[in-house]
Prior knowledge:
- This protein has helices at 2-32, 39-58, 94-105, and strands at 65-71, 78-85, 114-120.
- By secondary structure, it is of the alpha+beta class.
- The longest helix is centred in the first third of the chain and has 31 residues, at 2-32.
Amino acid sequence: MKNRERSLMNVLILAAVLMAVMFFLLKISAEAKADYFREDRTVAEAEFRASIRELLREEGYKNPGINLTKTSENGRTFEYRVWINLPTYYHITEIEEENIIKLLSDIEFFREDSSVHFSFS
Length: 121
């Protein structure tokens, strides 16, 4: 009976060790994909938003609302959407919007594997 108890205890210990290893591997994998909230990315996004605000100010548009959202399918490549909300007293045409978007597209952003799309709302 003691051999049977000992082999059962060995199996339970082995199962516990395997579960701990699997847990740590999954945790490491999840952290590797957690590029979404990296501090340098967050800082770069804030600087990007400030650059947009500064360019709009230089073009004569004060107090713009800038909404920056990001999505990612794999945690490594990101798609950013930038919505620009100008106060209602600015009446800009589609041509002016296109010109502003061209100017904004020249602003350098954090990484090459990210795409940025601008629009007005």
